[in-house]
Design goal:
Elements: E1 3-4, H1 6-13, H2 17-25, E2 33-35, E3 38-42, H3 43-57, H4 62-73, H5 78-89, E4 98-100, H6 102-108, H7 115-123, E5 128-130, E6 133-136, H8 139-151, H9 155-185, H10 195-246
Antiparallel strand pairs: 1-3, 2-3, 4-6, 5-6
C-alpha cells in the first residue's frame, strides 16, 4: 500500500491540505497513522477522500455525507471497511514508479525538456517532484513519449497527445465502471451492508482490474492494426513507387 504525507494526499486527490484537515475535523476522514510527529495516510484515505469530494460535488452537505458514511460503516469492523477501501485504492499499474534526474530526462527527450514542458508534465501527472529529482508514476508512458521524440515528434506535441489520451481513456474507463455499477453493484444507498455484500463489492472491484486492462489493450491493438496502415499507407506506396522508378 502507498503511504502519503498530507500534502501528497491532497495533491493525489486534487484538493488542498486545508480541505483534508476540514474533512478530518468533521470526522469524515479517518485519522492518519502517527509515526512520531509525522502523519501517514494510506490508499484507503485517498479513496475515502475522493468519495467525499465526489459527494460534495453532487451537492451533499457535510452532515449528510457523515450520516451516509456512518450508515455504510454501521455493523462493519474497521478492518472490513478499510479492506474494501484499500481494494478500491490499490494501484492498477503493472510497473513500479521510477526516479529520474533532470539530466536523465533531458537526455531522454533530446534537450527539449525546458521549464514550460516540465510544468506541463507535472500538471498532467506524468512526473512528480521528489526533491531535486522527479518520479514517473508510469515509466512506460514516459518511455513511449521519449520514443516519439526520438522519431521526430516535438515534445510539446507529445504532451498534447498524452493529455488527449488520458481524457479519452478516462472516458472509456468511466463508461465501463458505470456499466458495472449500474448492472452489477446497484444503488449503494439501498444496499444492505452485510458481510457478503462487502465481499461482493471487493470481488467485483478486483475482477474489474484485469477486465479493464484486457479490454483497453485489445481495443488499442485492434485500432492500431486498422489505423496505422490507413494513415501510413500512402507514404509506403510512394516509397515503393520511388524505388520502382529508380530501379
Amino acid at each position: 500500500m502507498a503511504e502519503y504525507r498530507i500534502d501528497d494526499l491532497a495533491r493525489a486527490a486534487g484538493t488542498t491540505v486545508r480541505n483534508v484537515r476540514v474533512y478530518q475535523d468533521r470526522e469524515l476522514l479517518p485519522a492518519p497513522r502517527r509515526e512520531g510527529r509525522l502523519a501517514i495516510y494510506s490508499d484507503a484515505h485517498l479513496v475515502r477522500l475522493r468519495m467525499i469530494i465526489n459527494m460534495l460535488e453532487r451537492g451533499y452537505a457535510f452532515a449528510q455525507i457523515k450520516e451516509m458514511l456512518s450508515a455504510w460503516e454501521s455493523g462493519r469492523s474497521l478492518a472490513e471497511v478499510l479492506g474494501l477501501e484499500e481494494a478500491m485504492g490499490e494501484s492498477w499499474a503493472e510497473q513500479a514508479p521510477r526516479v529520474f534526474s533532470l539530466s536523465q530526462l533531458r537526455e531522454m527527450f533530446q534537450g527539449q525538456l525546458n521549464q514550460a514542458n516540465i510544468r506541463r508534465a507535472l500538471d498532467l501527472g506524468l512526473l512528480e517532484r521528489w526533491g531535486a529529482r522527479f518520479v514517473a508514476p508510469s515509466p512506460q508512458l514516459l518511455d513511449a513519449g521519449s520514443e516519439l521524440v526520438q522519431l521526430g515528434v516535438p515534445l510539446a506535441d507529445v504532451l498534447d497527445l498524452a493529455e488527449q489520451l488520458q481524457s479519452d481513456v478516462d472516458h472509456v474507463s468511466e463508461t465501463l465502471v458505470s456499466l458495472v455499477r449500474t448492472h452489477v453493484l446497484g444503488d449503494p444507498s439501498t444496499t444492505v451492508w452485510d458481510e457478503s455484500e462487502v465481499e461482493r463489492y471487493s470481488d467485483a472491484i478486483q475482477r474489474l482490474r484485469p477486465l479493464a486492462m484486457s479490454a483497453l489493450n485489445a481495443a488499442a491493438a485492434r485500432s492500431a492494426e486498422r489505423v496505422i496502415p490507413e494513415i501510413l499507407g500512402d507514404k509506403l506506396v510512394g516509397l515503393l513507387k520511388m524505388n520502382q522508378n529508380n530501379s
